[in-house]
Automatic annotation (TrEMBL):
Belongs to the nucleotide-sugar transporter family. SLC35B subfamily. It is a multi-pass membrane protein. One of its GO terms (cellular component) is Golgi membrane. It comes from the Eukaryota. One of its GO terms (molecular function) is UDP-xylose transmembrane transporter activity. Pfam families: UAA (PF08449). It comes from Drosophila mauritiana (Fruit fly). Its main location: membrane. SUPFAM superfamilies: Multidrug resistance efflux transporter EmrE (SSF103481). The chain crosses the membrane at residues 7-29, 35-55, 67-88, 94-115, 122-142, 162-183, 195-215, 235-258, 298-320. The gene is LOC117145732. This is UDP-xylose and UDP-N-acetylglucosamine transporter. Keywords: Membrane, Sugar transport, Transmembrane, Transmembrane helix, Transport. It is found in: Endomembrane system.
Amino acid sequence: MNLSIRAISAICGVFLGCCSGVVFLELLVKLDPGAGNLITGAQFAFIALEGFIFTSKFGLAQRVISLRDYGLLVAMFFLTSVCNNYVFKFNVPMTLHMIIRGGSLISNMCLGTLILKRSYRLSQYISVLMISVGIFVCTYFSSPDLVGKRENLDNGAETDTFWWLLGVALLVLALFVSSYMGITQELLYRRHGKCAREALYYTHLLPLPAFLLMHDDIRTHWLLAFAGESYQLPLLGVAVPLILLYLLGNVLAQHLCISSVYTLTTECSSLTVTLILTLRKFISLVFSIMYFRNPFTWWHWLGTALVFVGTLMFANVIRVPKWKNQAVKRE
């Protein structure tokens, strides 16, 4: 497989940006589990600002896709981002968070069949079953791992379980919304050509006013950041809130991650992109378990293996033997 320098750079950006972003996100969640809206808002604002300067050329560049076409895309992207970061308030462990989001192939397959009327190979149906079982195993055996407490929550295991289930439901909703967003992007690119940088910019710029609805929550956690632990910068000798340092690291890593993914979709086949993102998720998962010492039993390993192998089978990296097909041909 011959890859261009641009593609190789994008692959490096995916691994470096996405994996480091997960580290900073875990550090943030450990200090403030309810900071999801603050994190999402900071990511959107930074990427929109960067896009306004370098993609939009301070509003002077002409759009390829109309704002009307971006409307549904932006709404879905905003909902997905908010859900994915907000669920930490409901006691969802980072490992389970990554495993459920790693099941995007299942939702893509379901929506591709229903909306685009696509057909799939037998190996892909088998892989969907493996991934589904893997996610179920990890979800079931993560349910007792309700570490910490939701803000302002002071009653019993049953209440904890309810909020945990609500968090899982939000993740599954975000999974299918994200898949539908991918189909919408594909249809837009068919009509207008690939314009990844423009899509990246507008999907982060247009939802910004919606964060005004969350300004109380964002302001609360912004003030909590200043009231929390500080870190003394070695050279400057200035004390900076530790949460803000982690937030800056997460925002920069997220920008590198998502811009690299958008670039990769224009340089490589969907098979290559799927494989790279699957490997990235698997590496992030293993690193999170090892570095942060998250609860992870052999059941979790079994579920993760099923998700990982099933994803590779779906991408046709691992192939199912076609003995029956060969026998039919010989007859």
